[in-house]
Amino acid sequence: MAGGGDELRALLRAANALLQQHRYRAVLAVLKGFRNGAVYGAKIRAPHALVMTFLFKSGSLREKLKSIAQATYTHSRNLAYFVSTYKGLMALQSRLQGKKIPFHSFFAACIGGWLVFGENNPINSQITMYLLSRILFGLSRLAVEKGYVPQPKQDPFPLVTALIWGTVLWLFEYHRQTLQPSLQSSMTYLYDDSNVWHDISDFLIYNKRTDSK
């Protein structure tokens, strides 16, 4: 037993020594990026998939749990692949040019996005739309910081919010097919299902009646 413990401690010391080697830093950063992407993707997707599946999806418990596991795995895997691809390409470009420049980030992320998130599926679509909203806000702030757009005299957030809500409800009412399926499901529950009831049971307790009354 003591010999096994000594071997384990020696292995840990060797691993720690390797992690301190500067020449391996780029490769190790790629590996840790893969690890962090996998963990973060699982943390983000699992609770979201759990809530959305039990709120809006029908089927047996086994089918629901399988759907949650599949969504969590896909999000975790894709994010792990993207982070490691991005960091690997960043390190490669920096090594080839001898320095890091802003275009490296854009190019590496474009390649990673194409390879990892290029398939048009519900999870990739949701991630892309999430990023798009953040990009629009970020570019707006950058335009003000750089002086391309004058600093607003009043907070523009109320106007932006009004336009966003007005547009999304217009799309839902008249061009519903253009919205993402999960958003359609959420808005159907909020705005369509609230127009239908038969008695107190499906007015206050349940959303829809399950009997044939």
Automatic annotation (TrEMBL):
Name of the protein in question: PXMP4 protein
Pfam families reported for this sequence: Tim17
UniProt xrefs under InterPro entries: Pmp4
Top-level taxon: Eukaryota
Lineage: Eukaryota, Metazoa, Chordata, Craniata, Vertebrata
The gene coding this protein: Pxmp4
One Gene Ontology cellular component: peroxisomal membrane
